Amino acid sequence: MHLRNVEPGDAEAYVRMRCDEGMMAELGGPLPREKVEARLRKDLALVAADSAWIKVIVPDGAAGPGRAAGLVTLWQDEEDGAPVSEIGWMVLPEFQGRGLAKAAVRQVLDAAAADGRWGEVHANPGVTNGPSNGICRALGFRLLGERDLDFADRILRTNHWVVTPGRQDGSRAASGTG
To answer: Which of 57, 86, 125, 130 gives a 20 to 30 Å CA spacing to 160?
Structure first.
């Protein structure tokens, strides 16, 4: 598995991830296609400005466009007037259960540690999202508790996790699939 920056050719993967009821079940339901296409344009601009890392997860042996297995994203937001770094991820159903998300999150956190600008990184998976909460637990995030969070104009009940990049469990371990 390797990671690459999001590209304009990833539009269909974005639509598959964010317009699908099953993929968006933990995030309040599917988004309209036009919102997803606008999100891709915004994400491309963020990557070009190096203000967010939006990485496409590409499984081993996959070549060419359309072989995206998922995304892992690291960005900064503002919370109570202070900058906060957050990480999130999605993996398409046919690639789930292979450890790709865990390996991708680990790689991004290792890169964030080397980069040094992100500080502590927060993750906010839904309280009922067992796989994503399991990734946080396995990588050494600390659970701060539950909270309500606004996502795409929807209020979600999430677990609030935090980790210091470079201090997560499994950091710099020889792994491709976690």
So the answer is: 57
